[in-house]
UniProtKB/TrEMBL annotation:
Xref: CDD domains: HTH_MlrA-CarA (cd01104)
InterPro entries tied to this protein: Cbl-bd_cap, Cobalamin-bd_sf, DNA-bd_dom_put_sf, MerR-type_HTH_dom, MerR_fam, Meth_synthase_dom
UniProt protein name: MerR family transcriptional regulator
Superkingdom: Bacteria
Lineage, broadest ranks: Bacteria, Pseudomonadati, Bacteroidota, Cytophagia, Cytophagales
Swiss-Prot/TrEMBL keywords: DNA-binding, Repressor, Transcription, Transcription regulation
HTH merR-type domain location: 3-72
Pfam family, one: B12-binding_2
Species this protein is from: Hymenobacter segetis
SMART domains linked to this entry: HTH_MERR
Record's keyword annotation contains DNA-binding: yes
Region forming the signal peptide: none
């Protein structure tokens, strides 16, 4: 069970702490317990209920009406009202609540609906990524169950693979990218999305996936002759070794564009080789790809 402070609830739900306290006191919405030092702490059920209530209130329901509903009635109402393709915050809240409940069927339903409304790429950018960022905050607070995160990551991975497989084949004469994760790096979702986005834009990718020793890149570049190389640095290499890693990759791919994405690539004071770039956001990476798309051939 998670143990959340009221500031955790505020950050995760978007509801101000004073509003949460008022709902708790006036409507008995949440049932915190107090520590030995008299500090309120909240559990998974409290967070789940608050997320669902936030969703309904965001859709115009009155808190006095919502607070009278059972958990089952609240969940049913949330599922019925999450049909606004532009209300990303409420979609993220609904998905987070479903993840916390281990409700795979509802998670799948919500992701499929968001994809139908927005298209796959926008679903990933405006719904899945904010959801993953919210979960990242929960990791930092030590309040997310690894099994809950694995459930969501597995579903997203399945959808990324299926969406990529459904794209038309790209000729090998197109602009070429090598995509890989460094040694011991296992966080693959961002790289899988980059693979999808590049192929959707008519660019050829050689996807090498997780845990590739840096020394292998030289032979890959010699044989495949890519135009660019991209990797995602989430937990590897160690923070103090990122600069060394960047220099090694840049040297092996001296005449190539090298894209380093992820939190470790954006350290303050990190100096990168001239052929390396570190886009801050995924939308920045997509803009970079657009800059290098070939000009259309005149008829």
């Amino acid at each position: 069970m998670g143990h959340f402070s009221i500031s955790d609830l505020e950050q995760l739900s978007g509801i101000k702490a004073h509003t949460i306290r008022m709902w708790e006191q006036r409507y008995g919405l949440l049932r915190p317990v107090r520590t030995a030092t008299n500090i309120r702490t909240y559990c998974d059920d409290d967070l789940r209920r608050l997320l669902n209530v936030s969703t309904l209130c965001g859709r115009g329901k009155r808190i006095s009406q919502v607070a009278c509903l059972s958990d089952a009635e609240i969940q049913a109402a949330v599922l019925a009202c999450c049909n606004d393709s532009h209300d990303y915050h409420q979609q993220v809240n609904a998905l987070l609540a479903a993840m916390l409940s281990f409700d795979e069927q509802r998670l799948n339903h919500l992701l499929n609906e968001a994809t139908a409304w927005l298209g796959f790429e926008k679903m990933m950018l405006f719904v899945a990524y904010p959801l993953l960022q919210r979960i990242g905050l929960m990791w930092l607070a030590g309040t997310v169950n690894p099994a809950q995160e694995h459930l969501l990551a597995h579903l997203l991975r399945q959808k990324l693979l299926a969406a990529t497989d459904a794209l038309p084949c790209v000729p090998t004469s197109a602009r070429r990218w090598v995509l890989f994760l460094p040694a011991n790096e296992l966080h693959e979702l961002a790289l899988l999305f980059m693979n999808y986005a590049l192929r959707a834009r008519g660019q050829h990718t050689l996807y090498l996936g997780q845990n590739l020793p840096t020394a292998e890149l030289h032979a890959v570049c010699e044989t495949y002759q890519p135009d660019a190389v991209a990797t995602v640095l989430t937990s590897q290499p160690e923070r103090g070794k990122v600069g060394e890693f960047a220099r090694e990759v840049a040297a092996m791919c001296a005449d190539k564009l090298v894209v380093l994405y992820g939190p470790l690539a954006r350290q303050e004071g990190l100096e990168l080789p001239k052929n390396c770039v570190a886009p801050e956001l995924m939308t920045d990476f997509l803009a970079l790809v657009g800059e290098h798309e070939p000009e259309p051939v005149a008829a």
